[in-house]
Design brief:
This protein is an alpha+beta fold. The protein has a single domain, classed as Ribosomal protein L17 (50s Ribosomal Protein L17, Chain: A). A 3-stranded antiparallel beta sheet has the order 1-3-2. A hairpin with a 6-residue loop joins β2 and β3. Part of the 50S ribosomal subunit. Contacts protein L32.
Amino acid sequence: MRHAKRGRKLGRDAAHRNLMLGTMAGQLITHGRIKTTEAKAKELRGVVDRLINIAKRDDLHARRQAVKVLKDKRVVRHLFEEVAPDLDDRTSGYTRILKLGPRQGDGAEQVYLELVNHRVE
């Protein structure tokens, strides 16, 4: 039975899944919006929300925790200096999912995952 089992496997082992989610979180933080599948977006929401909450603390330990997930100090700097201060008035709900419809090749549901303060240019 699958009681109390949280999260999606996304067809990957744990190490691959964690690296993929960290990379996708970095891309979302850098660009403000990414196009992905619905399942990946729903998993990524939690990762990004946790990272932004960590970034709001803005201390050395918080930066080290963020580097552990994001693996790129430039992205961490962007998160702490630009993204987190903009979202300081919120306590959660930093992302939104916009559905785009099925992908041409395999029919997977495509979505935009974006930060709520992202301005479309």
